[in-house]
Amino acid sequence: MKEQDQNRQNQNQNRNQSQNGSGQRHVIEVTRSSTTAPARTARREPVVNRQQNAADSQRRQNGAERHSAEPAVQRQQNAEGQHSAVPAGQRRQGGGRKRRRRVPRPLGIFGRTMLIIFTVIFVLVFALFAVLKTVATGPSETLRDMLVLSAMQASATKWVPYLFLDSETVDEILASAEATQTDVIPMDAYTYYTTDASETTGVEYPDETGDDGTVTGNSAAETSEWDSAIDGMLYQTVSFSTYKAYILIVKDPSRIYVGTSSDYQSGQTGIRIFDIVEREGAVAAINAGEFEDTNGSGTGDNPTGLTYSLGECVWNDGAYRTFMGFDEDNKLVVANSMTKDKAEELGIRDGVSFQTGNLLISNDGESVTVYYADANTGTSQRTAIGQRADGAVIMIVTDGRTASSIGATRNDIIDLMVSLGAVTAGMLDGGSSSMMYYEDYFTKYGIDTSTLDEYQKLGLCNVYKAFTKPRRLPTYFLVSPEE
Fold first, then answer.
1. Residue 165 DSSP code
2. Deepest of 82, 157, 195, 317, by most Cβ within 10 A of its Cβ?
3. Could you tell me which residues are beta bridge partners of residue 408?
4. Which residues, at least 6 apart from 358, have a Cβ–Cβ distance to it below 8 Å?
């Protein structure tokens, strides 16, 4: 029994021990699971954080590289785009920057403006070229010839006809324009209109003839004419359909002489009309002879062709030119050519030269010959000088190169000279050289100065149309003060 009890007791003890062991293992496992699980979690978190941190660091590095490579303007645009993605209310609450309004840069505005201007100029030039090309090749040869001859009148535009026509055609037009048709009128039948008669009554005053057959003019006409003279001169303007003429008639031809810009040896440039009248003390002046003016860039340093001033030959380059000048008897001499020997023989005291074929009117004492050129239809600013039978000198300058006054033709000047009674006349340099000066004419003739331009207020009679100030020229016909 005791043994059985002892065995039973031992079994109970073993069972209790096994239960206690399992309980301790349970407690230990629970404790281990409760303590080791967080430890394993803590060990996993640093790995994830490191991965995230590495990714963030890589993104920041890539962003910094892109940021440094972007231009400043693009970064500003990106920044503005980021701001624009956030509602305005949130940006204001978050303290974000307001989006700047883009202001156009001045360079951009200037560039667009210049582009518009150049485009307009190109269109206008192209349209003008197309019109001229159509005229040059069109059916109207009359219009074509007029435009060609007008362009050839100015040194700066002589090259233009060759853009549309071949050289042979241009030469044919020029040759045709040089052909003249002469009218010969007996001296005793040649009449002139005095200044007041041509403007008011239109009465024709026949010339009177002396015992020796010399035309002496009409005394009645002269009396009425010179009663209104100022400074011994008559000044008037006459408007025609295509030009306006400024006319100065000087009673005493001895007052007229050639003024020069320099001695032509020192290389000085020409002189402006305002400066030479001041230097010489002249009361009036017109431009005179030719000078080298390639493409309109001449400086007027030296004349071209035979030139006389105050009885001396001041220039002789041997050039073949039309000559206009006064002899010792104050008679106007106009010839299609002149040599120094011939000038000395004629007793020339003052004279200049201008191109060829510019003899307009001549006389031999018995008849007057007028040299018309019907094919010379070119219009331009013109300057001409003539002399009446009574010795009075006629100076004419015309406007040109404007919409209201395109200019005068050669025949226009001849008709005007004939109407003023010229028995001798020649054409002087024209175009941008055409100028007439008369000291204080607007006061003497009661002209409203508000109607005058800046040069006319200085004494220039005609409207000067050129891209420069009144040009520097080597020679002028000057009028000395009345004695």
1. S
2. 195
3. 380
4. 322, 324, 336, 426, 427, 428
**132's tokens:** 């001229």
CA nearest to 378, candidates 209, 178, 244: 178
What is the Cα–Cα distance from 445 to 229, expressed in whole angstroms?
11
First to last CA, the chain: 188
Helix orientation angle between 141-153 and 106-137, rounded to the nearest 10 degrees: 120
Rounded CA gap, 78 and 70, in Å?
Answer: 10
* Residue 163 structure tokens: 């853009």
pLDDT per residue as tens digits for the range 202-260: 334 444 444 454 444 454 455 578 999 999 999 999 999 999 999 999 999 999 999 99
Place of tokens 């002589």: 158
| 424 Cβ contact list (under 8 Å, min separation 6) | 332, 333, 334, 361, 362, 363, 386, 387
Answer positive or negative: Cα dihedral of 298, 344, 370, 141: negative
Q: Which two tokens stand for residue 462?
A: 């005609």
Distance CA 414, CA 397 (A): 13
